[in-house]
Prior knowledge:
By secondary structure, this protein is of the alpha/beta class. The protein is 22% helix and 31% strand.
Amino acid sequence: MTAARRAPSAVHPDAEATAQPLSFRPTMYSVTKEIPFCYGHRLLNHRGKCRHLHGHSARAVIRLESAVLDDLGMVVDFADIGDYVKTWLSAEIDHNMLLCREDPVLPLLREAEERVYVMDDNPTAENIARLIFQHVERGGFPIVEVAVYETESAFASFRKE
């Protein structure tokens, strides 16, 4: 684990110079990283248009929190979280067809050697947000929430309680 990714152990050394009364001190620092990606999917048993194969130019919004900052004064370096998520998204999700393992079109796409990411559940924005959250959590980042914007006005999120 790099110095920027290791768990913070103390408040930034300059904190004393800018000390404020306890009532004004933050209880949590947060950083947010947005990462665009594209995917195709369809939702089994959906009554509307989403039952058909279609795609989205999506955006993952990843929020990390910590009560303390690392030696550089960061929750996490934006480059570290960005590289970690982009590498995985590029390999697994981006420009890929996300399908439920029960989807009857799955064998046809595999036979045609199309990229397919198979999920246990319907590939809804909620389930994709959970998938990204779990990947970030496995990386040891202080993740609290992932939102997936399917469109500019519609998103779903998964968060730690």
